[in-house]
Amino acid sequence: MLVGLALSLGLGLALAYGLLDRAREDAAIEREQRRNLISLNALADLAQRAGGSGNRVRAVVEATKDQLPPGSSVRVIAFSGIKLEASTFPEDQGDKAAPRRLAREEKSLYDRGQRLRAAVETNREEGNARKPEIEIELLPTGGRLFSAPVEVDGAVVGMVDLATVPLPTLERPGLGPVLLAFFGPMLVLLAAALFLRLQRQWHLVAVAAGVFLVGLGGYARYSMSSLEDGVRGSQGAVEDHLRAIAERGRAVITAQSLAAEPALQPDAWDTNLFRKPLGLLTAQGTVNEAVVTQRVEELQGQASRAFVLLRVLGLALLLFIGLGALHRFVATVVEHREAYSYIMPAMVGMVVLVFFPFIYGITLSFTDANLYNTNQPLTDIWIGLRNYAEILGDFNIARQGDGGVWVFNYLNFYWTLFFTVVWTITNVTIGVSVGLVLALILNTPKLALRPIYRVLLILPWAMPNYITALIWKGMFHQQFGVVNHVIRMFGGQGLSWFESPFTSYLTALATNGWLSFPFMMVVSLGALQSIPMELYEAARVDGASRWQQFVSITLPSLKPALVPAIILSVVWTFNMFNIIFLVTEGEPGNSTEILVTQAYKYAFQRYRYGYAAAYSTVIFGILLLYSVVQNRLSRATEAA
Amino acid sequence: MATRREGVPHLPLHVLLVLFTLFTIYPILWVVTIAFSGRQNLAIATLPPEPTWVDRLRAITPWPEVWSLSNFSSVMTDQPFAKWMLNSAIIAAGTTVVGVFLACTAAYAFSRFKFPGQRTGMMAFLVSQMFPGTLMLIPLFIILVQWLGLGSSRLGLIVVYATTSIPFSVWMLKGYFDTIPRDLEEAALMEGASVGKIFWSIILPLAKPAVAVTALFSFMTAWNEFILAATFMDQEAMYTAPVGLRFFVGGFSQQWGYFAAGSIIVSIPVVFLFLFLQKYLVSGLTAGSVKG
């Protein structure tokens, strides 16, 4: 029991310690970043007031450089003339000192400036902040390079770069509290076991669980307060930095008689990457208590959620060990170690790349995941059943447009479902009838050349189906395709196949029909050949007609082979991604999408991962339902 | 007469079969024609401004105006197609090795040992075959590309293909292992051989045909796979052959000659492989019933 407590407590505390360490590191990085951004924005602001180029910019840089974070260097680039206006970079001294034209190998600097300009202009046009207006780049030295645009009269005329040195390694959070939280509960448990003489296992487990919660809870409290101290401490540090640089800025403005209007607003320098003020500091440059408290609470909320999870996990582990499940589990594994060791590699692969993604996919379907937020925790983008409601609850399938013409909403789920069902039924019907007829013909006794026909007729199945799809797409080309040539040969007009849903559907149907009949043919032929000839002979003796023979001998003998083949082919056709995706591409206007291609397009063309995951889950549900029903039916028919 | 007794005269059947076979192989003849035409054009023959019936017939006859190998030579040299084929070959080979190894060991355990979780494991493998591809695609994309940074990497595709091929391979191999009599192993056990030794030097050599068939299936599936490759490989240099072929004729690109030549190069090995494997496939599939 002591071991169990040690394990779960140790694990929980180690994780908590790691989390705290990371949170503190994040806080430190954030603090440094804010300081750097303040310096950068202050410089950009001053450079703007200095007109973006010329001697006054150099004076600004000269005057503020000792106020920058230690070890960092700045440069100012003006786009007109592609000039380096000012620089404190060590490589820009001597004969390469500013001002000078940028060298050819420094083109990346200019490009970065142009990117920033584009971002600023895009954001202004769209009226929102979508593209970051400040770029951060990791330098090979481990420091970071911050770049901000310089705007004069509403146009981006240059860029300010700030290169910083790497962060000093942080001191780790103290180990003392961790050890206290570890050994305290252990001692309590030991004492309880020794002095209280707890005889029953579950008493011991209960005590262990109790002290576990107390130990981890204590450490959680400690981490919270340490986190809060950290956040408040950084506010102070940032505040000091802002005040110092603002003072220097005012001095420079007077000394160089820069434009004093509008008045300097140091708090607007403390921004995020979109150059929107964070609001953590007031206009006077002091800490804005209300906002900071809110921020602290937000952080603590996240941390406490993590701790709750840790507690649940630890407790589960504790109970698992304490109640003897681990013991039994280990015993089973040891007893069957050979079997498990043979299965382990495959199982691990399956779990990591099949089962986990499957569960993750279903989880995603309850979120609003898209291209931009996949790195956020799922709880932040959780939207419950909204995706499903949107998919299944949208009955806006068709409306009557002008002049009584029905206009379909092809993106609607039920349209796509309807189309998929029609697509599946028609394809399977064609496949089965063509395949069966061919098999019957080929099964004619003593038919010459049968092996040759057979091989040639299997070819469509043997070809990779994406190639088949692309070939047929070419053959249905409006101007040069052979299909239209044939139509014109008989005096018709060539069709533009992909401009109406029906003809578009026909192209896909032709393609898929072409490649799916050989499977049915092979299956039927195999079954036909296994029918003993004696049956027919007996039937003939009894005077049965050929049709009677077909209905009462051939069809029943085909059934055991054909039914599984049909079941299989329904699933295949239902999921026949390549043909639709490559032949019709859903044209016109998504009318010929089947469910799987529609889901794919939601994910990889509209980048709505969460929605697409919900869509796929619905497809999975349909397939599951299909297989359950099909199992029931086949059992029922077997029993009958 | 024999035909009277057989019921149907053969001649009409042959006419029917020949016509249908011609229809069936027409697309294949078409692609061969384009490939050997030496041009990028989709049309087999250029039509005069006022085409007659004969001109049109010429335009659909799968016989190139000029025979030329230039499409084949330039698709392999001027275009990065050789590189794409190499990518495909590496990926398919890697998939086969990894997938078959994992499947062999797992199938052996499922076939020879009794252990808790055996039925659950087999069922889990079977059920996993029902997961729709698109449902797997999104999480796999996020995990492999966004988390692990394996986008446009051969390793990523190998790992994915190999694991997705495991269930089918395990079912096929287990079926075969079950037919190998246990006497041999029991005798070997008496001699003091370890389980590992039995597996490597008795079971695997005996199961060679089944392992070979499974390996060929894995290879073929990986070689023909399109969706995952198209989703994961977004650098042109890392395309596989299927994605590359699509690249020739997708969007606004109309390099039908390259496409046709490339298609033939890519198809020939798998078509022969398929014709050879087809009888195993039919029995394996229909026996396993639903497999999506």
Can you tell me about this structure?
The complex is a heterodimer of chains A (640) and B (292). Chain A is α+β, with helices and mostly antiparallel strands. Chain A has 19 helices and eight strands. In chain A, the strands form two sheets. In chain A, strands 3-2-1-6-5-4 form a six-stranded antiparallel beta sheet, sandwiched between helices. In chain A, strands 7-8 form a two-stranded antiparallel ribbon. In chain A, helix 5 runs antiparallel to helix 6 and helix 14 (501-529) packs across helix 16. The longest helix of chain A has 55 residues, at 201-255. The mean pLDDT of chain A is 82. Chain B has 292 residues and is mainly alpha-helical. Chain B is globular and about 85 Å long. The longest helix of chain B has 33 residues, at 256-288. Chain B is built from 14 helices and no strands. In chain B, helix 11 (208-224) crosses helix 14 (256-288). Classes of the chains: A alpha+beta (640), B mainly alpha (292). At the A-B interface, helix 8, helix 10, helix 11, helix 12 and helix 13 of A face helix 2, helix 3, helix 5, helix 6 and helix 7 of B.
Helix content of chain A: 55-70%
- Beta-strand content of chain A: 5-15%
Proportion in β-strands of chain B: under 5%
CA(first)-CA(last) distance of chain A: 58 Å
User: Can you tell me the residue ranges of chain A where pLDDT is under 50 for at least 5 consecutive residues?
Assistant: none
Largest sheet of chain B: none
Architecture blueprint of SSEs:
The complex is a heterodimer of chains A (about 650) and B (about 290).
Chain A: H1 2-49, H2 55-64, E1 73-78, E2 83-87, E3 100-101, H3 107-126, E4 135-138, E5 144-152, E6 155-163, H4 176-195, H5 201-255, H6 289-322, H7 325-335, H8 337-364, H9 386-392, E7 398-400, E8 406-408, H10 413-442, H11 450-462, H12 465-475, H13 482-489, H14 501-529, H15 533-541, H16 546-574, H17 577-584, H18 595-604, H19 609-639
Antiparallel strand pairs in A: 1-2, 1-6, 2-3, 4-5, 5-6, 7-8
Chain B: H1 2-6, H2 10-36, H3 53-60, H4 70-77, H5 81-112, H6 118-128, H7 133-147, H8 154-179, H9 183-190, H10 195-206, H11 208-224, H12 227-232, H13 241-249, H14 256-288
Helix pairs in contact in B: 2-14, 4-14, 5-8, 5-11, 5-13, 6-8, 8-11, 9-10, 11-14, 13-14
